[in-house]
Amino acid sequence: MTKPTKRTTRKPRKGPATEAPPAVPDFCGFRCPHSRFPPADTAGLCRTMAAVFCSKLRRLVSKNAPCAAAKPPGGA
């Protein structure tokens, strides 16, 4: 009587095809993968960030506002 052998399976590779895209948060902030620092002329000298540049919308958005990029088109 022979012992059953373990069948080895390969784990899927983690690469560009298997990685999930970063999640977009509910509110605008610097944790979003689409956020960038606003240009220096709009941020002011004190650098208190009241706005975030959204690279997906290509405009300044209010920090801590609900994400406009996550809403479906049509506003529903």
Can you offer a commentary on this structure?
The chain has 76 residues and is mainly beta. The chain has a domain at 24-70. The chain is built from one helix and three strands; from the N terminus they run βαββ. The protein has one helix at 40-43, and strands at 35-36, 51-54, 59-62. Strands 1-2-3 form a three-stranded antiparallel sheet, with no helix packed on it. A hairpin with a 4-residue loop joins strand 2 and strand 3. The termini are far apart. 7% of the residues are buried. The mean pLDDT is 74.
In what range is the share of β-strand residues?
5-15%
Mean pLDDT over the residues: 74
Specify the number of helices.
1
**Shape summary:** elongated
SSE run: EHEE
Return residue spans where pLDDT drops below 50 for at least 5 consecutive residues.
none
